[in-house]
Amino acid sequence: MNPAPGKRNLITDILGIQVGHAEDCEIGTGVTIITGDKPFSTAVDVRGGGPGTRETDMLSLENSIGRADAIVLSGGSAFGLDACSEVQDLLRNDNKGYKVGKALIPLVPGAVIFDLNLKDKPHVNISGEHSPWRKLANKAYKSASTDFYLGSFGAGCGATTATLKGGQGSASWSQTFSNGEEYTVGAIVINN
Length: 192
Known about the structure:
The chain is mainly beta.
């Protein structure tokens, strides 16, 4: 069989992968979470002059862990990294993570985009326990499923590219080999 896009051409064409997202359109920001029934293999490509990331080095091929329990993509620049901590707490509550002795450590790499247009909203608390990104991460994690929206949703809510609107996109690619084995690769991107 020739390679072709997956059934829905989404990252969730990979069996066991789920995506959740939540956005706050008043603030113009959001969070997207990729998670699964079990830990999954991942890779990352970080670009840009000022990347904001957490734990993406563990996704490098030369590192020993080679897995993630969830991935967080968020608006909010460096403040949005709060979303990773919220997801880590939620995974631990669900007894998911990397076991080291008696410790359970959910592995949650994340990346953020700059979408801080908060100057007209001085009432927004952008950090700490009540940051909008922790709240959005909680909602996104709890809504994770195989169905999700593309465009101005999740971390793509406030995404812009110069004067153009950015957003959230996804694709998948499946191929069945002559021995009958089928492989599906999926991707999700926040274009800012």
